[in-house]
Write a structure and sequence with these properties.
about 200 residues; about 55% helix; about 15% strand; elongated
């Protein structure tokens, strides 16, 4: 065994990460919950890798009053390409764990995954900013200087609505996969140093 070959433990970690990413294709990644006195049960917007779901029609109806654009899955190119990106990372993880099995490939996988995570969150923030600031000036409710950008993560008060933006099942899986790959990189780096 060379010093650059992945240990059995690290190969298992990477394989589990790859299998977990396949699960992400079928569960919601993120959710924005809205709470207000007139909706005591709350409203939720769920983002899957390929669609928007939840109380979309009700939220679109409410957004109309404040001049926000309506939300439709087909308006976002991200929903067309995201399943392919997730599949790419799942397959690459399995390939690294089964066939490629070197520290260089593991480091490459982890680096690409981190870059993708940063780009995805920046794109999500851009999307929220655009929808929260690009308002129809002729809307029924027009508060000068007010924008309705939901928080990237956490809580924000928007008029009489409290908005909570948090990862959903798929988002938490992404976080765990990122941490798993980081653990594998650190363990492999330590192994490489001990091997020398």
């Amino acid at each position: 065994m060379k010093s650059t070959d992945l240990t059995t433990t690290n190969r298992i970690i990477v394989l589990v990460c790859g299998l977990a990413l396949f699960v992400v294709l079928f569960v919601p990644l993120w959710q924005i919950e809205l709470a207000a006195p007139q909706y005591p049960e709350g409203l939720v917007l769920k983002m899957y890798p390929n669609k928007i779901a939840g109380n979309v029609d009700i939220i679109n109806g409410l957004n109309h009053y404040i001049g926000m654009k309506t939300l439709h899955t087909e308006d976002f190119v991200e929903f067309a390409i995201l399943p392919y990106i997730i599949t790419f990372f799942a397959v690459l993880s399995l390939a690294v764990g089964l066939f490629l099995r070197t520290f260089k490939w593991l480091l490459g996988l982890f680096s690409l995954f981190v870059i993708f995570g940063i780009v995805a969150m920046a794109d999500f923030w851009r999307w929220e900013y655009q929808y929260g600031h690009d308002l129809d000036p002729n809307a029924a409710i027009n508060v000068p200087g007010m924008s309705y950008q939901p928080p990237l993560i956490g809580y924000k008060q928007l008029l009489n609505f409290g908005a909570y933006s948090v990862p959903d099942i798929g988002g938490w899986i992404f976080i765990v996969v990122g941490l798993g790959l980081l653990v594998a990189v650190v363990l492999q780096f330590k192994h490489k140093k001990q091997f020398k």
